[in-house]
Amino acid sequence: MKSPLHLFIIGTVWPEPESSAAGKRMMQILSLFQSQEGSITFASTAAKSEFSADLENQDITCRTIQLNNSSFDDFVEKIQPDVVLFDRFMTEEQFSWRVAEQCPGALRVLDTEDLHSLRSARQKALKENRPFKKTDMLSEDIAKREIASIFRCDLSLIISEAEMNILKQVFGIDDSLLHYLPFLLDPVDEHTTQQWPPFKERNHFISIGNFLHPPNWDAVLNLKKEIWPLIRKQLPDAELHVYGAYPSQKVSDLHHPETKFLIKGRAADAKEVVRQSKVLLAPLRFGAGLKGKLIEAMQCGTPSVTTDIGAEGIGEEQNRSGFIKNNPHEFADAAVKLYTDSSAWKNAQKKGVGIINRKFLRSDFESDFMKRIVNLKKNLDHHRSNNFTGAMLMHHTAASTKFMSKWIEEKNK
C-alpha cells in the first residue's frame, strides 16, 4: 500500500550524484519517497552548479531559501510538509527551530550522511600521530553539536552499522531515534557481470573521489608519497589514474607522467572509468560513513585495496572485494597481487557481488523505512514524549539560535 507524503528537504547543497557519494545518497532517498507517489519539495541556500541533478525534470519542486530570514517561515508554513529532512546537522541547526514553530506536526528527520564528528576526531588523531579511540569523540565540540541535532530530530538516518554502534554505545542514543539506511542498490545479476570487461582487458590502477573532501585529498597524498613508489618498484609499466571532482591547482601539481601518476580530474562517466580499470586504490587514513568509491567499484566488478577505515560498514577482510591493508608496504604488495594474479582478482570480484546482494539491496530496506516513517508520523506526540532530552535541546535552541538569527536578520536589513 502506498503512503503518499509531502517531503520537504532542506539541502546544504543541491545534489550532485556524479560528484560525490552524498549526492548519490540523496537521489536514492528521493527515489524512495517518489515510489510512494507523494510530493517532494527541495530547497537550499546554495547556488546550483552545472553538475547539479535536474530535480525539476523529476517532478520535484525546487526553491532557493535564505539563511536568517523570516521569509522561510512564511514559505514552510504555506507548504505544510508531512516530513522535513535535513541533509546535514548544520542544516538542522539553522532551520529546525523554524520548522518546529511553523509546522509542529511535521516529522523532523536528519540524514547524517556520515558522522562528521567521527571523521573530525579521526583526522585529529592522525595529525597528532596517535591511535584513534572512540571516546576521543566525547571531547569534540562538533560532536556536541551533531549529537544535539540527532536528539532534536524525531529520527536520524545512519548509513553505517559501525556508526549505529558508536551512537548507541558511546553517546547512549536510543534505538527509537535511529534508523539504519545504507546505500540502496539494485542487485548485481549474471547479466550484469557478463557485461564487465574481463581481467585481461582491463588496464591501470585507479583512485577516485571528490577532491574537496579532506579524506580523499589525504588519500591521494598518501598514494603519491608512500604507496605508489612501492608499487612502481614491482610494476614499473603500470599507471595510476587519479579521478575526482573539483581538482584544485595543488591537485594538478601532483600530475607526474614520468612516474605514471596521472591526474585525470573529473570523470565524464565515473562508473565507466572504474569499470575499465583493473584495481581501485583507496588508502583512506581517516573518514566516516560508507565509502561510495568502494561500493561503486564492487558494482563495476573492480577489486580494491583499502584500509580498515575504507572498509568500515562494508565487510571484514574475509568478505572484502579485495584486500584491507593499513601498512604502506602491505598495501602496495596487495595491490600488485590483485593486478597480476587473475585468480585472486576474480575471487575478489565475486566477493564484491556477494556484498552488494547481501548488504545493500534497496528491496531489503525500502518497505521497513517507509513503514517507520508512516508509523512515527501517526504516533508523533507519543514518540516525542519519550524524548525529553530532544525536547530540552529544542527549547534551548529556540531560545538562543532563534534570537541570534533574528538579530542577524535585523542587522542585514
Map the helices and strands:
Layout: E1 6-11, H1 21-34, E2 39-44, E3 61-64, H2 71-79, E4 83-86, H3 89-102, E5 107-111, H4 116-127, H5 141-152, E6 155-158, H6 161-169, E7 178-180, H7 190-194, E8 205-208, H8 214-234, E9 240-243, H9 249-252, E10 261-265, H10 270-276, E11 279-282, H11 292-299, E12 304-306, H12 308-311, E13 322-324, H13 328-340, H14 342-359, H15 366-378, H16 380-385, H17 388-412
Parallel strand pairs: 1-2, 1-4, 2-3, 4-5, 5-6, 6-7, 8-9, 8-11, 9-10, 11-12, 12-13
Compact summary:
By secondary structure, the chain is an alpha/beta fold. 47% of the residues lie in helices and 13% in strands. The strands form two sheets. It has a seven-stranded parallel β-sheet with strand order 3-2-1-4-5-6-7, with helices on both faces.
Properties at a glance:
17 helices, globular, alpha/beta, 13% strand, 413 residues
Question: Can you describe what's shown?
Answer:
- Helix content is 47%, strand content 13%.
- With 413 residues, the chain is α/β, with parallel strands linked by helices.
- A seven-stranded parallel sheet has the order 3-2-1-4-5-6-7, sandwiched between helices.
- α4 (116-127) packs antiparallel against α5 (141-152).
Structural class: alpha/beta
Point out poorly predicted stretches: none
Strand order of the largest sheet: 3-2-1-4-5-6-7
What is the radius of gyration computed over CA atoms, rounded to a whole number of angstroms? 22 Å
The profile of the biggest β sheet is: 7 strands, parallel
Shape: globular
- Give the number of helices: 17
Q: What is the assembly state of the chains in this entry? A: single chain
| Strand fraction | 5-15%
How far from one another are the termini? 49 Å
Helix content: 40-55%
Total strands: the figure is: 13
* Order of secondary-structure elements: EHEEHEHEHHEHEHEHEHEHEHEHEHHHHH
Let me know the average pLDDT: 93
